[in-house]
Write a structure and sequence with these properties.
- The chain is mainly alpha-helical.
- Among the domains are: 172-243, Tetratricopeptide repeat domain (Serine Threonine Protein Phosphatase 5, Tetratricopeptide repeat, Alpha Horseshoe), CATH 1.25.40.10; 323-433, Tetratricopeptide repeat domain (Serine Threonine Protein Phosphatase 5, Tetratricopeptide repeat).
- It is 76% helix and 0% strand.
- Helix 3 (45-63) runs antiparallel to helix 4 (69-85) and helix 16 (285-297) packs antiparallel against helix 17.
- The chain starts with a helix and ends with a helix.
- It comes from Flavobacterium jejuense.
């Protein structure tokens, strides 16, 4: 009997050992040897070509300043420059060129209105983007292209019924642009599996077209979708596919950094990648990611330095309303700064009355201990109106604070499934809800 017990114990230990090894293998997804070549300072031919093109078209414009179409070309090049280096001044200069062009032709070209709207979407100026798209629609040229962008803007403004109407107007299952918007619609409605299915159809189209820009867009975006679905290996693979096409794609590198941090808890590897991105594409939210990582490590000093860097970059550049969400969340959780958070949340609601904006307001109320007002906001604007994990997390805490959280209205299991997306800093809080 004793020998049988010993054998059973050895068998159980062996099984535990095998299981532990498999678990570690499943946890470890990123491999430095696969992406380290993208962390070296190397020639960015795309950037150099854009700069050459700018010089070329600027000279042509200087020689013939009556040719307004040159301004459109230059504007597009400066917008591309912003996407590569993150310098906000390039985006503003792109806007200036378009407005100059629009004034010259007295606002009579739909295509220019669409270009201005695209620029304003990048700046999070969605109401102004809508105004230009409505002008484009009235002018009539390429209404399908205008409707596609109208869908995008209505989604950003929380006009979901209008967005649905626009989606119906552009319905075409053979159109890449339609499919990626259909995927966004399904994701908004909480049907992530369907969204991925549609994105995979769009990906086949992009691959068949052999258009590198389409492939870049679909690979980087489907990597995000896979991550949200818990398919971390697939997410990583498609970030690598993105980098294979564009060695300097900082968005894909940031995605790999997130996998290293959130999935693997490899903070050293994540910081190494972020430090490289900083040297190439400086945007404020990189410092927020650093702050999250240092917070997870328990390094309060390094976290504060990262936050100070975030606010320094904001103060040195005028980003308009682009970082309102981040600022509202930060100030809401910072003693003495809640008045700023409240002001920003109210501004965001004015700019775009979406569940995401109302969530900011509710979160401010929660953090100042005004649980009743927090509940009033979520009951009208966010409960069962968004599938965003952070909003669901805030809803749970606010319901709990009002003694209204129960088995029927709790989404704790859904949140536990979303820890990768939310980040490891919230894991303990979610478990204890």
């Amino acid at each position: 009997m004793r020998n049988q017990t010993i054998k059973l114990s050895i068998l159980l230990l062996f099984i535990f050992f095998i299981f532990s090894c498999n678990s570690k293998e499943q946890l470890h997804i990123t491999k430095k040897k696969e992406y380290k070549e993208y962390l070296t300072n190397k020639k960015n031919s795309k950037l150099e070509n854009i700069k050459k093109d700018i010089a070329y078209w600027q000279k042509k414009y200087n020689d013939a300043p009556n040719q307004y179409t040159y301004l459109i070309t230059l504007s597009g090049l400066y917008a591309q420059l912003f996407e590569i280096n993150g310098t906000i001044k390039d985006l503003y200069y792109s806007e200036k060129l378009l407005l100059d062009c629009n004034n010259r032709i007295k606002g009579e070209k739909a295509g220019i209105h669409r270009s201005i709207a695209k620029n304003y979407i990048s700046q999070h100026r969605f109401k102004e983007a809508l105004s230009h798209l409505e002008n484009a629609y009235e002018l009539g040229e390429n209404k399908k292209g205008t409707n596609k962008m109208l869908f995008d803007v209505h989604m950003e403004l929380g006009n979901y019924d209008l967005a649905k109407d626009k989606l119906s107007e552009i319905l075409d299952y053979k159109d890449f642009d339609y499919l990626i918007r259909l995927a966004k619609w399904n994701d908004h409605n909480g049907n992530l599996d369907k969204a991925i299915e549609v994105m995979e159809k769009a990906m086949k189209m992009a691959e068949a077209s052999k258009n590198n820009e389409l492939r870049l867009w679909i690979y980087s975006n489907i990597a995000d979708f896979y991550g949200h679905a818990g398919r971390i290996q697939d997410s990583y693979n498609y970030y690598l596919k993105t980098l294979e096409i564009d060695n300097n794609n900082m968005y894909a590198l940031k995605g790999i950094a997130w996998i290293a941090f959130s999935h693997e808890k490899n903070t050293k590897q994540a910081i190494e990648i972020i430090n490289y991105i900083e040297s190439k594409h400086l945007v404020p939210d990189l410092y927020l990611l650093k702050a999250d990582i240092y917070d997870y490590e328990g390094d309060a000093r390094a976290k504060q330095i990262a936050l100070n860097d975030y606010f320094r970059v904001l103060s040195e550049n005028d980003y308009g309303d682009m970082y309102n969400k981040y600022n509202a969340l930060l100030f809401a959780e910072t003693p003495g700064e809640t008045d700023k958070a409240l002001m920003i949340a109210e501004k965001e609601i004015f700019n775009r009355p979406t569940p995401e904006s109302y969530d900011l307001l509710a979160w401010v109320y929660y953090n100042i201990g005004d649980y009743k007002n927090a509940y009033d906001v979520i009951s009208k604007h966010t409960l069962n109106k968004s599938h965003e994990p952070l909003i669901i997390y805030h809803n749970e805490l606010i319901l709990k604070a009002n003694n209204m959280l129960n088995e029927k209205n709790s989404h704790k299991e859904e949140l536990l499934e979303s820890i990768y997306e939310l980040g490891p800093n919230l894991e303990k809080q979610i478990i204890t809800i």
